[in-house]
Design goal:
- By secondary structure, the protein is mainly α.
- It is built from 13 helices and no strands.
């Protein structure tokens, strides 16, 4: 406790160092947890790929337009429910545990409302991107460009904030209004970190496409976002344990090297031999 309190007085010049510490540890821990639970991650990804085939291919063979649209919408909602259940499942991995199939089906039942909410929100964002922005741009006026820019930045802000939707539902709250609210709170309080996690998640998505969504895949990305949220919440635990009302700038001096001591001990370090032949170390 003394170490944590004394760390609150570190100079502001160390802020970048601490931020780099937590990012480096986040990438390391995500890789370790993905490696240790590769079979579970691949299973979750296979399930998602099989389910995603429903909205991807089935609507095209249905001759009735209304029914085709309904099947597509139902398939998207099912995929979102699956992703929510996967996010709740990988939370156990992030917390140095594991999960089994029985846990996953229980998580499907627990997470379906959030999954539907996520699917509906995704549809709204898709409409903004595919219909509303082109509509304003087609006006060919300064006012149309202004409205298109407002919608674009609203869309971008929503994407950066809502990336944590499933992780917040899994880790913080089950009430959907509070989940949406906390998504934006996390972003506005940690904008640089949120932008980094989005960019890194996009890199993981690109790699996943190359590997047919098997690794890291949707489950691996969800694990990364949960790891990111979990580590970011340690900051708030530290701030609560070390109140310092007379120095509002304390939020910029988070001593990550101190906060992450226990996390680093639990995660440990590994050699290449340990990765390939863990039973020999």
């Amino acid at each position: 406790m003394k170490a944590m309190r004394s760390a609150a007085h570190y100079p502001l010049s160390t802020a970048i160092h601490y931020h780099g510490d937590v990012i480096g540890f986040l990438i390391k821990k995500t890789f370790f947890d993905t490696w240790d639970n590769m079979f579970r991650i691949v299973l979750l990804n296979l399930g998602f790929v099989a389910l995603a085939a429903l909205p991807a291919f089935l609507p095209s063979i249905i001759p009735i337009p209304a029914l085709s649209i309904a099947v597509f919408a139902a398939g998207v909602l099912l995929c979102c429910i699956y992703l929510c259940a996967a996010a709740i499942s990988v939370k156990a991995i992030s917390d140095y545990g594991s999960f089994d199939i029985a846990d996953f089906w229980a998580n499907v039942i627990a997470g379906w409302p959030a999954g539907i909410a996520a699917g509906c929100t995704g549809c709204v964002l898709a409409i903004l991107a595919g219909i509303i922005i082109p509509f304003y741009l087609d006006i060919n006026s300064l006012l149309g460009i202004l409205f298109a820019a407002i919608v674009f930045w609203t869309l971008l802000l929503s994407l950066v904030s809502l990336q944590f939707f499933f992780a917040i539902r899994a880790r913080l709250d089950t009430k959907l209004i509070k989940v949406f609210k906390k998504c934006f709170i996390i972003f506005f309080d940690n904008p640089a970190f949120a932008i980094f996690t989005l960019m890194y998640a996009l890199v993981m998505l690109a790699l996943s496409i190359i590997l047919a969504l098997l690794l890291p895949g949707p489950a691996g990305i969800l694990l990364f976002l949960d790891e990111a949220l979990r580590l970011r919440l340690l900051k708030y635990d530290w701030l609560e344990a070390n109140p310092q009302p007379e120095a509002p700038s304390r939020r910029r001096k988070i001593p990550w090297d101190v906060i992450l001591i226990e996390e680093r001990e639990k995660t440990g370090t590994r050699s290449l031999r340990n990765f390939i032949f863990p039973w020999k170390d």
